[in-house]
Amino acid sequence: MKITGAQALIKSLEALGTEVIFGYPGGAILPVYDPIIDSTIRHVLVRHEQGAGHMAEGYAQATGRPGVAMVTSGPGATNIVTPIANAYMDSTPLVVITGQVATGSIGTDAFQECDITGITMGITKHNWLIKDASEIPRVMAEAFHVATTGRPGPVLVDVPKDVSQSEMEWYDPPMPEALDLPGYHPQVTGNRDLIAQAASLMAQAEQPVLYVGGGVLKARASEALVQLAEAIHAPVVTTLMARGAFPDTHPQCLGMPGMHGNYTAVTAMQKSDLLISLGARFDDRITGKIDAFAPNAKIIHVDIDPAELGKVRRPDVGISGDCRVVIEELIMACQKETFSTLEPWWTQLNEWQTRFPVHYEESQDGGMLKPQTIIEMLAANSPDDTIVVSGVGQHQMWASLHWTFDYPYTWINSGGAGTMGFAVPAAIGAKAGRPERTVWAIDGDGCFQMTAQELVTARSEGIPVKVAILNNSYLGMVRQWQEMFYEERYSEVYLSSDLPNYVMWAESMGCVGIRVDTPEEVLPAIEKANSINDRPVVIDFRIDASEKVFPMVPSGSSNDEIVVHPSQQEGN
Q1: What pTM value is reported for the model?
Q2: Kind and range of the H or E element at 523?
Q3: CATH of 2-169, one of 3.30.70.1130, 3.40.50.970, 3.40.630.30, 3.30.450.40
Q4: Are 146 and 117 in contact (CB under 8 A)?
Q5: Cα–Cα distances in Å, from 165 out to 15, 31, 99?
Q6: Ramachandran angles phi, psi of 549, nearest 5°
């Protein structure tokens, strides 16, 4: 059967199980948009190509399936570079399809031409420039395989316009029976001898910490993690990318470590004699000054990507493999060991937890709104499996610290790249993938203004997300640093308390807008938002601009120099 390359592309996506494409048409990709009319795949028309990428990321993080985005050449392609980079940093499976000028025009600076495969070479697992329509089924199968296996990540397929318009022979089934990808063979199982060595170190440790990263979620390893933690009775810290991988209410959970992690999680890692790193990469936001990080700890490092082993901290035992598989192997190996008692270690941990809980000063009568209170009230009045999507900055840290995450895949954020503007489109993608779930985007006023036009997408596509803006009229995290380290010299961080009017903005996009100025208005606003499920809702919470995120490890400092809330500091 003869069909066009464009038809082959859509048929290939259908065969690979694609449910949703987030995209924006244009000249070079236009032939591919025609067969979408007859396809079973839902297309979500975004208002900016960056939104398409972030929606695909939110969809992928919420569902575990690859997110698919499709845009045109030139500026359409460059507009989606930021989401690709974001997905690369956070190991999110993404398949991005870009239009390209006709093959004969490549290299001539044709209208809307750009070398998108060259631009994205360093931020994709792999990318393809298709030269012949007959390659499409094979390339798409390879793209989905690469995006979702090993360490997940983004891939890009660039399709010239003449390739999508030309004819090819279509065969059923369209996908090749076997993929030939020389050099691409992710290691899944752990080395047996290294597993035994790791179990022996775990048995001998007196102050171990399970250091859990986002790789545990990518590997669908949460249940196995709980089994391992309970078997060895070790404390667990979950990084920003791993929130929900281990239940916050579990008695062995210490919460989030890192630059804005809680005191006990940070200090436990510093004082440990064994760090068992599972799917984490020793990011600088976790380690602080690397030379001073966990100086007495031996290291077991488990990661699907062998390049991560020894990249930042040399492990005593480095195991390349899928986290779920390796954790299950560790559980079996630990059954053969006799473990040291951890009672003195838990006594110390409990003392730190009692002395230095995550703390803030609540609003006094007539006082301004406290962002932490808003987060806690949102959590208390939302279903347990609510998906929380955050932007980047103070509100991101407050959300991670003050929302209790007991379920995996309920926390979505931009971790490695720290991309402002992530929350609104990513929440739309998450809701498109999990329409039965409540999805709250917790955003800052700076982040919101970057991508809020996607609320038009949400309204027109019938995707009723809820947005809580923690509005302090500043670029809050930058302001905090300027106050603490630049002698309160507030350079270019004030955004205005009057512009824009967020209620009118939301209403102009067909959403419900609510403004909250006083503590008494918080709960009624949340209850009203929860009662509306036929359109997006935006709540503008006017919070105290002077509020800071504590604890905090100053940039470049040792984690031993963690700064707790002023009320917990010596002399207070």
Answers
A1: 0.97
A2: helix 519-531
A3: 3.40.50.970
A4: no
A5: 20, 6, 12
A6: -90, 120
What pLDDT, on a 0 to 100 scale, did the predictor assign at position 286?
A: 96
Q: Is 384 helix (H, G, I), strand (E, B) or coil?
A: coil
Q: What are phi and psi of 329, to 5 degrees?
A: -70, -35
Predicted pLDDT at 572: 60
CA distances from 473 to 97, 313, 399, 419, 520 (A): 37, 40, 18, 19, 21
**DSSP code of 297?**
-
Cα–Cα dist 479/303, whole Å? 36
Low-confidence ranges of the chain (pLDDT < 70): 365-366, 571-572
Q: Residues with catalytic annotation?
A: 49, 111-112, 161, 477
Could you please state the CATH topology (level 3) that the domain comprising 192-355 is classified under. Rossmann fold (3.40.50)
Strands (E), 56-121: 67-71, 94-100
Residue in 448, 443, 396, 442 with CA at minimum distance from that of residue 417: 396
- Do the Cβ atoms of 228 and 326 come closer than 8 Å? no
Residue 366: the pLDDT is 66
How confident is the model at residue 476, as a pLDDT? 87
Q: Give the whole-angstrom CA distance, residue 47 versus residue 87.
A: 20
Q: What are phi and psi of 283, to 5 degrees?
A: -65, 150
Cα–Cα distances (Å) from 33 to 97, 103, 141, in that order, read 12, 19, 20
Q: What is the pLDDT of residues 309-338, one digit of tens each?
A: 999 999 999 999 999 999 999 999 999 999
Architecture of domain 371-549: 3-Layer(aba) Sandwich (3.40)
Phi-psi region of 458 (alpha: psi -120 to 50; beta: other; left: phi over 0): alpha
Structure tokens at 246: 């281990």
